[in-house]
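pasting for the record
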Amino acid sequence: MHVIVSDKSVPSCWAATFIYGCPLRSGRNLVWESIRNIARSERLPWLCMGDFNQVMCVEDKMGGNLPSQSSIVSFHSLISDCGLVDLEFKGPQFTWRNNRYGDNFIMERIDMAFANAQWRELHDRAMVFVEAAIGFESFWVTEEECKEVVSETWSQNGEGSKMYTVCKKLRGCKEKLKAWSIRKFGNLKLMIATTKDQLMEVQKQIQNGFNPDALALEKSLIKKLEDLWQKNAMYWHQRSRIKWLQMGDKNSRFFHLSTIQRRQRNQIMRLKDSSGVWKSEHKEIAEIIKLHFQDLYRGPPSRNLENMVSLVDHVITEDWNAKLTRAVTREEVQLAAFQLGPLKAPGSDGFPGLFYQSYWDIVGEEVFEAVQNFFQEGYLLKEMNQTNVTLIPKVLANRLQPFIGNIISEHQSAFIPGRQVQDNIIVAHEVFHYIKHKKKGPKASVALKLDLNKAYDRVCWDFLFQVMEKMGFDRRWINWVQQCVCTVKYSFMANGKQVCSINPGRGLRQGDPLSPYLFLLVADVFSTLLQKALLKKSIGGIRMKKRCPVMTHLLFADDSLVFLEAVPQYCSNFMELISCFSEASGLSLNVQKSSLFFTPNIKDSLKEEIKEILGMVEMDGDAKYLGLPLFWGKSKKESLGYIRDKIMKKIQGWGNKELNHAGKDVLIKSVLQPIPMYTFMCFKVPQSLCSCLNSAISNFWWGRSDTGNKIHWGAWQKLTDQKGMGGMGFKDFESFNVALLAKQFWHLTKEPNSLWARVLKGLYFPKKECIEAARGSTPSWI
């Protein structure tokens, strides 16, 4: 059904198509062609929704056989041909179920809504709720007057401490820049429209004959209009939070649509209170948010931490402490300033990193003196911690980084130089492959995938600082960290309005450069507990082969896998261990969202006993770890189909017609081609899938018209040539896969003592070099 929707009170109208897709694939192809015919003729804002009887990706189906890859590709082609974007959803994912039980139970997301770019712009509902809050605009840096305003404000003498002076001058800059911007620009959109009208009038005069004054004015207006367009592009780029395009790329329509999409996705329409009642009024939503976060960040009750902290080893040397607590230098502070994300969401002061980087010659000296004052006095002004002068935590993080690898257990791979996410992926894949195929033998095993509830937000400060002291950190260093952690203040916003502010009693601030390292110190205590429990034989791990290390756990920040011998006593000891750790650290295990997986050789009675002890459900076949599947089917192409789904979803989400070729070039290289990187580093991907990915990139590059793909003016192989050789420098996915596998092999030869290298050696080349490795009897896909 295709209709035109109009409202007398609104000047614009739009089109809507309501779909019921045929249950039979042959019939669906006819429906797809009908939708394409509508797209070719429809020029209005267009909404297309209904029951398509087709999933968009593997994740849109639970249970039963994997969906047909060819039908998914066909559906993606339809959406791309029509220039539509998925409007996504809120609430439960699946919209259809077969109402059967047990292994025959199936759920799918087949009811969807799509719209073209015009419809999304027309229905930007989020704009109604967002109040303008002027922070530091990126396009201001293109104006010399902005620098003059900053210089004038900063040159004024300040009273009080160095930190207070910097905070006061930042407030002054904010007010002066806000007033200057209103005088200088007013409304950018209105200025562009007015300038275009002026330009048209001048060009009409020129049509009457040679007029040197009109020609000079035309030249001036064209330059002004180009400058305004550039500023408009930067304005929407800043709000879109798109990181892969440089400021000033003239894709302002694309940035505008990205901003609309982000706002609609982040908009809170209603919330459920503690009594289970839905609330939709802004005041009610604000109260729910306030109560929730007050409870979340409430400090822990007093408790005995001595038993837990006593297990922590002293690892920090005097030499390390001397380097950690040395006097701060100008070079350190400037490096930290230029490591800030230029347009990363600013603090409550409204100044992103771009402000400090653009005007460091003006503000740098006083900012350095304020940071130096902190390191000398050991006191951080609370107002200073509300600004984007996260330079102090950044300096501390830069100092700690070289030593963190020697402090943290080899079972943790996050945020540590030299350790990579694929290290954990490889080991996890091998362990789950072993568990899945262990069908004989007296000993059974169980793998646990743990879900830690709001891990960063629940870290108890007293536990963190006592752990640091036991590790041997200098008292000055601990005090610096305390000042950074304990003086924070969180401000919460809903639909563009600030709803409350909270002084937390626990938790680590996400986005703070020091927080990841502090979290690792806390999580490492859990790793130490497991290792010491294994030595005491309180728990048993998994040894896949004689020469393999015993595996008890893998950590990547708060993503945790635990491997146990399936013995009831071991499982009880583990639950007691994690309960003690949770009480001390504040990290809370969400048993309902945690899951487990047994070896097939376990007896049913033992399985049920262990499930009761652990209180967890068994993993389903869609379980993932670090974004990759834990379980693989018989077909590698089907199992890796999610890569194609991710790339196609990105392409459709951005819209093919809203980017110029310069923008597409950066998007392909910075976003699309890195998507399968971790998979490509670990697995040899089928050639047919690589060809499918190459084709998707090629189609996106050349674009699509209303009648299908545009002409491909060059072969794919030519596009993969370097720009100096006449190509675009795109990566051929098959060659990219081989290159990344070769790189991983090189790491294997250079890091023979790493955990993942020892696991692979024990499995595939225990008495040989890695170059001589054989597949073995039951090899994985590594």
